[in-house]
Amino acid sequence: MYKVHSQTRRSVMVALLGALAFLLMFIEFPVIPIVSYLKLDFSDVPVLVGTLLEGPVTGIMIAIIKCLLHGLVHGFAPVELLGLGADFCSSLALIFPFAWSFHYFKQVKRALWTGSVAATVLLTVVMTIFNYYVLTPAYMAMFAWHPSLPIKQLMLIGVLPFNLLKGALISLVFAIVVIHLQQSKRFQV
């Protein structure tokens, strides 16, 4: 009986956090003018909460749900698929460092600090490489787009700082949520 209750609870949590992450995708804004097409949203915070509470597989399931819901609403055109692929990759780059740090460190503050630094660095490296080799060439081919700067310079002064800022801000908001969850009697973080 307990196993069924636990599975039901987990399924409901995944669905709710996936829906919340999907809704948070609508609140997006550019943060670096030179790469205004890169927009920051906080949809990875529910993904990280699910990762913290139930593990990385749950976080991945939440990321898949938010991407599928976004695709169902906006369509699965090639340009949307590129964006969803980038979003999913960035979610993975955040999930694994935080999952590792919460597994390895038993002190929440230390796990948050280590996870934040590792996730921000991994996100920046993965997404800069992904933008350089996949996303930017794909957008250039699909839309005959030619950036005003050489691609390497665009990565250095646009994409790299954007991902550093994104990782830091998502980590900060996640840390605030974790601290509030830690104070709640219902959640044992």
Automatic annotation (TrEMBL):
Name of the protein: Riboflavin transporter
Protein species of origin: Candidatus Limosilactobacillus merdigallinarum
GO molecular function, one term: riboflavin transmembrane transporter activity
Compartments (UniProt record): Cell membrane
Main location: membrane
Bilayer disposition of the protein: Multi-pass membrane protein
Known role: Probably a riboflavin-binding protein that interacts with the energy-coupling factor (ECF) ABC-transporter complex.
UniProt keyword annotations, A-Z: Cell membrane, Membrane, Transmembrane, Transmembrane helix, Transport
Pfam families: ECF_trnsprt
UniProt key word Transmembrane helix: yes
Family listed: Belongs to the prokaryotic riboflavin transporter (P-RFT) (TC 2.A.87) family.
Taxonomic classification: Bacteria, Bacillati, Bacillota, Bacilli, Lactobacillales
Stored InterPro entries: ECF_trnsprt_substrate-spec, RibU
